[in-house]
Structures are given as structure tokens and as C-alpha cells.
TrEMBL record:
Repeat recorded as keyword: yes
Aladin seven-bladed propeller domain residues: 136-485
UniProt keyword annotation of Hydrolase present: no
Keywords: Repeat
Provenance organism: Pyxicephalus adspersus (African bullfrog)
Single GO BP term: nucleocytoplasmic transport
Matching PANTHER family: ALADIN, ALADIN/ADRACALIN/AAAS
Name of this chain's protein: Aladin seven-bladed propeller domain-containing protein
Gene3D superfamilies hit by this protein: YVTN repeat-like/Quinoprotein amine dehydrogenase
Length: 519
């Protein structure tokens, strides 16, 4: 089992990790500038510019226009109808109970008894699932894969699966599309696009983006050849379902034929046919909702996490599932190996990484998930003390999120800091991984942040041809990319001609261009 004490010592304060090359993490001091060619010839990612007005938290206005009308007396039955539409059966019963002079006495008493039962049942249900009493924004903040969803000006990011293009959601509820070589940055805005928690590009398609919002799922159709910087709301589809809000996770099938969405207050996972705007709920008793979804790269399985100490894995042939209970808390995050044969996941309240292996079902077992009966611990990320020149640094603790690069050779784990220790830091731990013929997990290094910054959200580039590229959003509203240059089975012909020499020095740095050519 791999533990943090096997990792190399973290960098001194003020140094950040620029890239990995030949299995070595290359540092860079923040007082000096990276190579001019780093973001172009080396990484070749879109350059972003964000106006300051876009990172300000907008004032929240009431969605109701009730205050704009002069109050007038309505009949009790009309008030009951309005209460039922706005608050459900409990609101209607409360309206009848408060109208003793306008309704028969027996009806008022029956309504009071029914209202008391509804409140008792709601209280009992809330004691089983405390998250149901939380506000919508608090639910998204609690179950989002981003750590500082409420306060960070950059909320989430989604790389396109086939091109150098990504969508970036901002705190003002807008989404910006950045693409390499494009001078146009489309800005997506919609009146229903509130509190964006997750985004996903449709595979095998250049222009369709699914967005998880407070009250619905918005599917944008963005013409990549258009010169318009503000696509109209007519370029979007609205997918909504009663009781399915807020939406905290969306994901497409690897072939793009099906879209999944989940909400922590809805026990059903919705399977959407976007073309017809219809859905099929996949309902299971228990769990209190669905917080996080992850489709395996081979398309055979889906991870479904819940707010309770249980998670499910669905097989996508017959849509049956198997459940795995956890000991301490809910499943916080999970990621699949490239072939879909292994699931790595983390549990809230624990400082370990678990592994579940899956075998392809054959014969009578077809239509089953085929997972192992119990999970094994493959890594210990509990708090570890490192001695540096400037004193001790504590790293380790609970896991916020995990991502596995598409080549299956790098695993990034976002570790929270210990709030009770001043020397504790939140960092990203990077592992070298190998899934076959046997599973291996080896330490690679830490990705520290600048002083005063913490990692908020991360995602690997789906098709980086020179190894792996990790994009990280920071609590300060900054974004940076960390490339990992290595030769893998998918792209074995990329070899370095010359190496970049990076010196972590306050005054100067020597740099030789690093080029990649294809033989």
C-alpha cells in the first residue's frame, strides 16, 4: 500500500510545479516568469482572459413577481390552488388550516391533522437524510466536486473530449468557451442558468454542452464556426423533471447517445434522450438522492454516489445495479481506469483510497455488474509531517476529488488540509499508475500552490498527445496547467529532442526550448 511518507519532500514555499519530464517534477519560482513558449509550443492550450466584472458575485433577485402586484382579497379555494402549485400539498393544507372562518369546521380539523402528520413525516425523513433541509446553494456546495464552489470565482471546468477547447463556468452564472487558435470567446447566458455545478461536452460532437443548473439541465448547441460571441437562448434545450433540482452532476455516455443527470434530493438517476427531451428515471430505494455520476470510459458501467453511506454501480446493458455500503460516510468521489475494469473511490471522513475491480460478465452472468464483493485499500493519504528548510509541513487528510488521466498512467488526488493545524497545507498528490497486468500505484510528487491559494477543482485533458495535462482551478480565481511528459502506449512516438532546464531561483532561469517531434 502506498502512503504519503514515500513521496519526495514538498517544494519550498514560493515554488510551484511547472511540469513533469522523465519522471522528474520540475519546479519554478513564482518570482520569475515561465518560458515564453510554455503555454504555446509546449502545452498548446487556449489562453484565457476574464474581465473583472465577470468574477463578481451577482446580487440575487427574487424570481417571483408577486411583489409587483397590488394585494387583493382572493377566495379560499383560489388561495389553496396557488399554495398547492407553489408549496405542494403541505402548503394547501396549511392554507385551509389558517382559514377557519371560510371553510367548514370539520374540513379545518381534518386539514390540521393531515398537516401535523405531514410535518412529523417530514421531520422523520429529515432526521434520516439531514441534507434535505439544506438550501439549494448549500446542497450544491456540499456535493460539488469543487471544494470552494460558493466563494471561488471560477466554479467548474469541462475539457472537450476531442479538441483543445474547454468550457469555464464563472460565479456570475455565465459560461465562456475557450479554444486554441480562436479569437472568439462565446459567452453562454440563460435566465435559467443559475448555480452551475457540473458541465459535460457530448462525445463525437463538436458543439453540444450539457450544463447542470439549479432547476434544470441546459443543453447548449454552439456552432464552432460561428463568429457570434453571444449565442442566443434559442441555441439551448431545457431538460427538467419534477423534484429533480438542484442538479449537481451530468455525464454523457462515451458514444454520446445518452445523457445522465442527478440531484441530491431525488433518489432517481435520470436517463435523458436529448433529441426528444424525454427521460427514464432509474429509481432505487435508499440513499436519499444521487450526488455524483461517473461513466466508465468503456461505457459498460456508471458510478452513482448518494448522500448516505452507500453507493451503486450500474451496468448499462440491462440497467441493473449493485450496491456497496461504506463504513463512515458517503462516497465523496470516484474515477475509472481507461478500460473500465477498476474503480478508485474515496469516502468522506476517511484518508484512504479504495479500489474495486470488475470482470466482464459471461454466459448466465451477462447483464450483471460483475464487481468484487469488497473493496481493497490501495493508498493511505493520512496526515504526514515533512521537514523542510523553512520548518515542518503537514500534508494529508480527507480527499475532495480524484481524476485519472485517459492513458491510465497518472492519478491526481486533491487533499484537504487539517483546519486545526497551522502548518497543514492543501495540495494535489500525483501518483504513477499501471492497471495491467497487475495494478500498481507509485508516488510521483506534490503539486503545491502559491501562498494564500488552495486547489479548488481539477480535470485532465482528455486527448493530450504528449502524456497527460492536468488543469487546476484555484481558490483565488486563477487557472493553471501542469503537463506530464511521458511515453505511453497510446502515443509511443513522441520523443523529446532537447530538455528544458528549469532552475528554481529568485533571479534567473535558464531555458532551452522543449520540442516534440513525431518520427
Amino acid at each position: 500500500m502506498c502512503s504519503l511518507n514515500l513521496f519526495p519532500s514538498p517544494l519550498p514555499r514560493g515554488d510551484v510545479m511547472l511540469y513533469e519530464h522523465n519522471n522528474k517534477m520540475m519546479p519554478w519560482h513564482i518570482s520569475s516568469s515561465p518560458p515564453a513558449s510554455f503555454n504555446t509550443s509546449l502545452v498548446n492550450v487556449p489562453e484565457i482572459t476574464i474581465p473583472l466584472d465577470s468574477v463578481k458575485i451577482p446580487g440575487r433577485m427574487e424570481m417571483s413577481s408577486k411583489a409587483a402586484f397590488i394585494h387583493h382579497k382572493e377566495s379560499v379555494w383560489k388561495r389553496c390552488l396557488n399554495s398547492w402549485k407553489q408549496m405542494g400539498i403541505a402548503g394547501m393544507l396549511e392554507e385551509i388550516s389558517n382559514s377557519e372562518e371560510e371553510v367548514p369546521q370539520f374540513l379545518c380539523r381534518v386539514s390540521c391533522c393531515c398537516l401535523a402528520f405531514c410535518r412529523w413525516f417530514s421531520s422523520f425523513h429529515g432526521s434520516l437524510f439531514p441534507h434535505l433541509s439544506m438550501k439549494s446553494e448549500d446542497l450544491i456546495s456540499e456535493f460539488s466536486q469543487g471544494r470552494f464552489w460558493t466563494s471561488c470565482s471560477l466554479r467548474t471546468l469541462a475539457w472537450h473530449p476531442h479538441t483543445n477547447k474547454f468550457a469555464l463556468a464563472l460565479v456570475d452564472d455565465s459560461i465562456r468557451i475557450y479554444a486554441t487558435g480562436s479569437s472568439v470567446t462565446p459567452i453562454l447566458k440563460h435566465r435559467l442558468q443559475k448555480d452551475v455545478a457540473s458541465m459535460a461536452w457530448k462525445p463525437l460532437c463538436a458543439s453540444i454542452l450539457a450544463v447542470a443548473c439549479q432547476s434544470c439541465v441546459i443543453v447548449w448547441h454552439i456552432d464552432p464556426t460561428s463568429l457570434s460571441a453571444r449565442p442566443s437562448s434559442g441555441c439551448s434545450q431545457i431538460l427538467s423533471h419534477p423534484g429533480h433540482s438542484p442538479v449537481t452532476s451530468v455525464c454523457w455516455s462515451p458514444k454520446g447517445s445518452v445523457l445522465l443527470s442527478s440531484s441530491p434530493v431525488d433518489t432517481a438517476m435520470l436517463v435523458w434522450d436529448v433529441s426528444t427531451e424525454t427521460c427514464v428515471p432509474l429509481q432505487r430505494v435508499g440513499g436519499g438522492g444521487v450526488t455524483f455520476l461517473s461513466w466508465s470510459p468503456d461505457g459498460s458501467k456508471v458510478l452513482s454516489a448518494t448522500p448516505s453511506p452507500v453507493f451503486r454501480v450500474w451496468e448499462t446493458q440491462m440497467w441493473t445495479c449493485e450496491r456497496w455500503p461504506t463504513l463512515k460516510g458517503r462516497c465523496q468521489t470516484g474515477c475509472w481506469s481507461p478500460d473500465g475494469s477498476r474503480l478508485l473511490f474515496a469516502v468522506q471522513g476517511e484518508s484512504v483510497i479504495y479500489s474495486l475491480s470488475f470482470t466482464a460478465p459471461e454466459g448466465e452472468m451477462q447483464g450483471s455488474v460483475g464487481g468484487s464483493r469488497s473493496a481493497t485499500v490501495v493508498a493511505d493519504v493520512s496526515e504526514t509531517v515533512f521537514d523542510t528548510e523553512l520548518g515542518e509541513i503537514r500534508i494529508g487528510g480527507e480527499i475532495q476529488s480524484m481524476v485519472w488521466d485517459p492513458s491510465g498512467e497518472r492519478l491526481a488526488v486533491l487533499l484537504k488540509e487539517n483546519p486545526n493545524e497551522d502548518t497543514s497545507e492543501s495540495v494535489i498528490a500525483v501518483y504513477k499508475t499501471k492497471n495491467s497486468p497487475i495494478f500498481e500505484l507509485l508516488p510521483c510528487g506534490f503539486l503545491p500552490c502559491r501562498i494564500g491559494e488552495d486547489p479548488h477543482f481539477m480535470q485532465f485533458h482528455p486527448c493530450f498527445p504528449k502524456g497527460a495535462l492536468l488543469t487546476v482551478l484555484l481558490s483565488s480565481g486563477r487557472l493553471f496547467h501542469v503537463p506530464f511528459y511521458f511515453v505511453n502506449a497510446q502515443h509511443p512516438r513522441f520523443i523529446p529532442e532537447t530538455e528544458t532546464m528549469v532552475v528554481a531561483d529568485d533571479t534567473s532561469a535558464k531555458e532551452t526550448p522543449l520540442l516534440f517531434t513525431q518520427n
